[in-house]
C-alpha cells in the first residue's frame, strides 16, 4: 500500500495540471488488501497528503488528541515536501543491463526486438518445437499460473509501432504494447472530441488495480480474452464502439474487426501478432433530433477493488426523436456488447441490435428485446450463478433504454458530461469519501497506560523493514518444502510418484509418515482435545490431508514438484465418506464434548412454550465457513543444530505447542528443540493449530536431511489446508408473546468439525455465550460436534461467538416478521435487565454497574440519530423503485476468559529494559500495550526522567527455551494477561530497587535519575531480572464485553449490490490500555465481520476439497466495500475492579457487530419484496425468507427477484 500511495504521489507531482485530491488518495490504495486495520486509518494516512483534505476529518489519533486545534494538528503531522521526499528511479540504473534472472541461457532466453520486422525475423527463426511467449508486463501469470517456462521470452515493449498512440479526427489508434494506464490517459485527453472515450477511460479504471494497469498491456488483455477466455472488460468496451485490430501475419499486416478477431482460432497457438487497436470517434450528427448514447456497466464483488465481474456490458446507440409529436424515441443504430458472463469471450448481441434498429421504443419492444437477449446470454455449464448473470444482462439493457421510454425524450446531452442514466460504473469523482473516526478518549490515571501511543514496529512494517520468517536470509545449503495433499476424502494410498515417473528438477527427497524417526510419532498438531497426524498413513481420511513433503532446492521447484505428484488411490472395500453433518448424524459420528464446555440450559423451556402466544416451529438456518486470509501464509524455517537439536522459526500463535509437537514427532526431548517467533503477519486463529504441522514438517526435513528446510505455503495450498471457520446447521423452535417478548427457545445444532478434534469441542460453549444476549425466557439446546471426512475446522476470530450472536439476531428478525413488528422494538423489549443477565450468565455478569449495554443502546441511538434516519429510510423506500435501504441496530454480549500467561522484565546495565512475554505480536498491538505497562510499572520508582522510560523498553521475540508456558495467543485476552504478567514483574523489581532509591534520596538532597539508580543497583548486585506466571483468579477470569452497532445500507435491485452507507459502533473497552490500538482492533474486527456476513465464500466440492484458490475467487473487503461513513466510539466506562487496570478486551467482540450490516440488508430486501409482491414481480412472502451468510450479490438479487425487470415490463404493458 505504501508503494501504491508513493506511485500516486509521484504521478501527481509529475502532472502539474492534476492535484493529489482526497479522491485520488482513496483510489491510490483501492484493490490493495489488508486484513487487520479495516482500512480507515490507512486511507486517513493517504488523505493527509491531499490538497483538498480537511485535517479535522482525519482520525490520526496517535498524532493529536480529540478537540485540539488545526494549528496543533498541522504541527504534529510529519512534514511532506515532494522535492525532498519523492525519490525518482536512478538514471544510472536505467542504463544498466538487466541482471541475469537465473535462466539457463542455453535454453531460456529473453529477446528484445526494436521493430516489427525484427520481431518477425525472431519468430521465423525459432525452431518449430520452441515455445515462445510475447510479454510486456507479464501480468497474465497472476491469473494463468504458468507451470512450465517457455523456451524464449520476447519483450515487445520497445517496438515503436506497438507502443504508439495516434490520434486524428477519425479516432484513436493504440499500440498493443501500450499499458492500460497509458491507454486510459490517452482516452481521457481525447474526451473533449468524443465523450465515449471519457466513459471508456472511467470504466477501464476498474480493471485490476493501479499497479496491474501500469504494467499490463491492452494487447495482452485482448489476446488473453481471445485465446484463453479471460473475462475482459477491455474487450467488451471495444466491441461496443466497433473497434478494429491490426495483426501481423507473416510479413503481412491484416485489419479485422474486433468481433472477427475474437472468432479466430487462438492467436496464442499461431505466429500471428496483435499490433494495434483502432477505436473510431463517435460524435452526434448535427441537429437536435439525433444523438449518440454510450454507457458501460460492471457488476463485481468489489466496485474498484480488483475483482473480476459477474458480467460487464457496454452499449452505444444512435437515437432520434419523433418529429411530429416530439414524443417517443427511435433507435437508429445500436451496438450492445456483453462479457464476463461465462461464455468463451465478449459478444455483440446482434439479434437484439437488429430487432431494435428502426423501432420506436416502448415497453413491449423492450420486453421483446429482453426475451431475445436471454436466449443469447448463455453461460457455460460450469459457470457459477448463471441465472444471476443472465438477469444482470437483462437489467443493464433495461437500465439503458427504459429512461428513454419513460421520459419520451433524451434526459441529458451526451456531450454535456452528464450520465445517460444511473450507471453502475461510477465516475472516478463520484467515489464516496470515507469519513474518519476520532472518538478516542485518553486516560492519564496510569500514564503512559491509556495513551494513544503509536504502535510498536509501525514504521518498520510500513517501510517493509520488519522481518518475518520468510524474510530471514536463506542459507546457501537451505532446502525448501511443499506439501502433497490428498484429493480424495477416504481412500487407500496405493502409490506416490511423479508425472511420467520422472523426478522433477531440484527435488532432493519426498518424506512421508514412513520417514518419521522410529522413536518418534506421526503427529503434526495437538490441543487439549487430542493430537492430529502430520501425514496420512496408508489411508487418507479427507481431501486436503497432507500425504507427503517434497523437499527441493528452491521453493518454486518444490511447489512445481508437488503439482506434478501423482497419487494412486483405491476406494475398494471402504465405506462411504462422511461429508455432511446429516451423514454424521446417520452414522453417529461425533466428537465428545466435556461437560465444562457444554453450558447448562436456562429455565423451563416446556413452561415457556406453554406461555407463548405465538410460535415459530422447526425453522432452519445454515452458516458457512470463512478463510483467515492473513497476509503472510503459513511459514516456517528449521535449522539442524549440534547434539541432536533443531531450531525452528515459526509464524505461530502457539510456539509452546509447536515446540512440544516437534519434539514428539522427532522422538527427542523438548530441551533439544527451540522455537522462535518474532512476529506473525496476521493470524486470526489460523496460525495456532494449523501452524504446527508446517513447522513440524520443516523440522522433520531438517532433522532427516541435516540441512535447513524452509517452507512458505502458496495461497492455494494454504486455503486448501486452512480449515477455516466451522460451518453449521441450526434448527429452532421459539415461543413469544404478541408484544414480541420471548418466552422460550429450543435449539438443535450440528457443527461440522471435520476430521480431527482441533479445538472444536469448545464450540458449544462459545456459541451459547453471545446467543444468550437476549432474555429468551428459557433456553435449551442440543449441540453435536460432528466428525466428518472433511479437513478439520479450527478457531477463527470469535470462533462460535460470531455464529451464536448472529443466530440470535436471525431468530429475532423472524419473530418480528411473523408479528409484523418493527424489529428494533423486538430487540429492545428482549434486552436483559441485570436480573435476567444474572439468570443467563451467573457470576460472569459481574456487578450491576458493569452491565453497560442498556446505556450503550440509548447512547448510540442519539449519536447515530437512529430514529431520524429510520424515518428517512422509510421515505427513501417510498420514493425509489429500483433501490431500497435498510437500517438495523444490533447489540452484543461477548464472553471472554483470561488464561495463565508468563512474563519477564530485565533491566540492563545502561538502564534500557528488555521484556519477554508469552503472548505473540500478531499485529494486534500486544507489544505496544506491554511496553506501556512496563513503563507504568517501573515508573512507580519515581525517578527523574520517568516520562522517557517508554522509549527505553524493547519487547523481544518469543523463544520457547527462554520463556516457557506461553500457551495460545487467542481469545482477545492475551494482551491484557501479558500486561498483567509484566506488571507483576515490575512490582518485584520496584520492591528490589526501592531500598536503594530510599538510601540515595537520604544521601542526596536532589532527585535521582533512572540511569544512576540502575548503576547503583548493578554495583550492589541486585537481581534486576524478574519473571512471573500470571494466574487469573477463577472467580473473575471470565467477564462480559458489551457493544452496539447501527448500520445503514442501500441495495441495488438490478444487480443485488449492497452498499454500506454508514456504520456507527459504540464499544465498552473499560479503561483502554491504548485507545488508538483498541479503536483499530474494533474497526478491523468489524470489517472482517463484514467479509463473513456479506462477501467471503469458502466452499468445498463434492469430495470436500476447497473450491476457492486465491484472490481471484476469494474476496475480502477492500476500501470500496467498507462503510462510507464509519464512526466508532470507545467508551470509558470507569472502573472494573477485577480487570487489568480496569481494561477490557477488544480483539474479537466488535466482529459480532457486523451482523448489523447483514440485518440492514435483510431489511432492505424485505422492503424490495413488499414492493415486488404488490406489483407481482416475485412469488412468495415479503417477510418469510432467510438471507444466507454471506449475502453476496447473487444471493441478494435472487431474493429481490431474478426476473423483476421482465415482470415490471409486463406490468407496464398491461397498464399496471
UniProtKB/TrEMBL annotation:
GO MF assignments: 2 iron, 2 sulfur cluster binding; FAD binding; indole-3-acetaldehyde oxidase activity; iron ion binding
Residues annotated as binding Mo-molybdopterin: 653, 684, 797, 971
Chief location of this protein within or outside the cell: cytoplasm
Hydrolase keyword on record: no
Residues reported to bind [2Fe-2S] cluster: 34, 36
Binding of substrate, residues: 765
Active site (record annotation): 1148
Domain FAD-binding PCMH-type, first and last residues per copy: 103-284
CC annotations in GO: cytoplasm
Alphabetical list of InterPro entries matching this protein: 2Fe-2S-bd (IPR002888), 2Fe-2S-bd_dom_sf (IPR036884), Ald_Oxase/Xan_DH_a/b (IPR000674), Ald_Oxase/Xan_DH_a/b_sf (IPR036856), Ald_Oxase/xanthine_DH-like (IPR016208), AldOxase/xan_DH_MoCoBD1 (IPR008274), AldOxase/xan_DH_MoCoBD2 (IPR046867), AldOxase/xan_DH_Mopterin-bd_sf (IPR037165)
Keywords: 2Fe-2S, Cytoplasm, FAD, Flavoprotein, Iron, Iron-sulfur, Metal-binding, Molybdenum, NAD, Oxidoreductase
EC nos: 1.2.3.7
Similarity field: Belongs to the xanthine dehydrogenase family.
Full protein name: indole-3-acetaldehyde oxidase
Native source species: Arabidopsis thaliana
Lineage of producing organism: Eukaryota, Viridiplantae, Streptophyta, Embryophyta, Tracheophyta
